[in-house]
Amino acid sequence: MTQPTPLPRALPAGAPAAGGMRFYLTTHKRHWVKLTDVPLFLKSEHFAAAAKLHPARGRYAVDSGGFSELQRHGRWTRSPRQYVEDLRRIWEHVGPYDWAAGQDWMCEDLIVHGGTAGPLTFVGTKLSVPEHQRRTVHNFLDLRSLAPALRIIPTLQGRTVAEYHACADLYESYGVDLRQEPTVGLGSVCRLQSTKQGAAIVTAMTARGYRLHGFGFKILGLERVGHLLASADSAAWSYHARKRPALPGHPHKNCANCIDYALRWRTRVLAAVPIHRQTLLTDRSAA
What we know:
The protein is globular, with a radius of gyration of 18 Å. The longest helix has 18 residues, at 129-146. It has eleven helices and eleven strands.
């Protein structure tokens, strides 16, 4: 009987590669971990629902699925203990991941107030931004207390530079030294990542000495601030593919679930980022 991979004793193994940025290809297809060794970003819920898990060929990180949880329910339906158990199973069967996101509370207007965006309906939490920040920080403290070895990262939330500073200060008030964390998530920037406001937020948090992961950064955002990030991820390839015909020789209607398309898109993303800013965008196995 195969023995499970032991859990790590500390966080440093999940640290970003020195001097560059790691780019994770986001996918909803959990079996891709056995098909490619490029860094992947996958939702914990997709692993949790699987009867069989495949060992990963390369690096990967775990998304908590917070956007979907809050979009659909306006709250978290999984307890911290349930989430920790999911992460333990992923670690033991898929292999050591770089890090896992916490059960944070995004601060986009649609998440807070509710509404519709395309086919999605947001129920809204009807809570304030400070309350979202408080719950984000408290959840991180709970998860770190429950499983200090599971490489769960703190995430900053807000909408303005001042609000992100307030969230960082809240972590610090609880004794969390974000400068010592290998990775600090930067949430609620997906729709801001290519704007001047998004750049100002990234610049301000980087100036505090944090090694940031940018959730949902696309080409324009990477061109603007990619050189300031420790890592980033994007699932834009799937939306991009959904609007276009399938690749030649592919039998499906479109390539929104296709690894060939995703890897080609990744190559185009990396090529679009200025050379002096790419550094370790193509990193696969460097520690």
